Amino acid sequence: MEDDDPTIRQFREVAAFLPFPKALESFWPPAPVPGHFNRHATAHAAAATQYTPVNAVTAVMLAVSVLRDIDDMGYPVQLHA
Questions:
Q1: 30-59 residue pLDDT tens
Q2: Which residues contact 27 (CB under 8 A, 6 or more apart)?
Q3: Total-model pTM
Q4: Angle between helices 8-17 and 53-73 in degrees, nearest 10
């Protein structure tokens, strides 16, 4: 019998990477600026719609969770300086 219960590792990976699709959605003016955190809108539509406390916390939490997951799970990372 196959075990269909998700493991803690799978849960952590999903929790860390699930916000990426929304954050990386395409945004091109003159389309309306999305209210949720969006990387492209943050860079190219600097206004109160994107720069909110909730979006700032979302961006920081996403960055920290991904970096922590990479560090904790031993993904190979090469830094070139």
A1: 889 998 999 999 888 888 998 999 999 888
A2: 33, 34, 38, 40, 41, 44, 45
A3: 0.66
A4: 140
